[in-house]
Design a protein that fits this description.
Elements (H helix, E strand, L loop, with lengths): L5 E7 L2 H14 L5 E4 L6 E9 L2 H10 L9 E11 L7 E6 L3 H16 L12 E8 L9 H4 L4 E5 L1 E7 L7 E8 L6
Antiparallel strand pairs: 1-3, 1-8, 2-6, 4-5, 4-7, 5-6, 8-9
Length: 187
């Protein structure tokens, strides 16, 4: 195990999205026994988890990520609750994110830049989502009906990509290390 800080690359949420999904969390806490509920300020869409990173490698990556400034802003829809894992004890609860061609292209660019900077290619397919809670801590429950109850769509303008450093013992846990503004206007 290394003592180097851990990082990831993500799309930050706008304030109205943080507020909205924070309300979902507040209501769902009454129904679902998760150990960890993501702090409102930490809500995001992960593009690439980097893990432990040495400072020289991080500097190189941050420089390479400047290419993202050539990417055009775009819009996606978020919403509709879902989960990963056993439907009766799901390990992760999330809000869905529309996987548009623009979002897939951005993820591909982030992956390519990361590999160029010496990071391993992600072997899992990109499944965009906003983690709301994780680490199930209770009896089995029925998740049926949640998708219908939590299904309102919100439009999100993707105008920035950030690199976050993880501080496990703090709340909020994530701190922006670098931000890359995307270009252009969105209709």
């Amino acid at each position: 195990m290394t003592n180097e800080p851990h990082y990831f690359i993500a799309i930050p949420l706008q304030e109205r999205h943080k507020e909205y999904y924070s309300k979902w969390q507040f209501n769902l806490k009454e129904e679902l026994p998760y150990k960890q509920w993501v702090n409102k300020e930490d809500l995001h869409i992960t593009l690439k988890f980097l893990g432990s990173v040495e400072s020289n490698k991080l500097k190189q990556l941050l420089n390479y990520l400047n290419v993202l400034k050539k990417t055009n802003k775009f819009k996606i829809a978020t919403g509709s609750v879902g989960f990963f894992g056993n439907p009766k004890k799901p390990r992760v609860l999330w809000a869905g994110v529309e996987k548009t061609s623009a979002l897939a292209a951005l993820n591909h660019d982030v992956e390519d830049v990361s590999v160029s900077a010496g990071f391993e290619k992600d072997r899992r397919s990109f499944s965009p989502h906003i983690t709301l809670a994780k680490k199930w801590n209770g009896e089995e429950v029925s998740m049926s009906g949640l998708k219908e109850q939590y299904d309102e769509r919100l439009e999100l303008t993707v105008n920035q990509v950030v690199v976050y450093r993880i501080f496990p013992a703090r709340t909020p846990k994530y701190e922006v290390v670098a931000a890359y503004e995307l270009k252009g206007e969105v209709d």
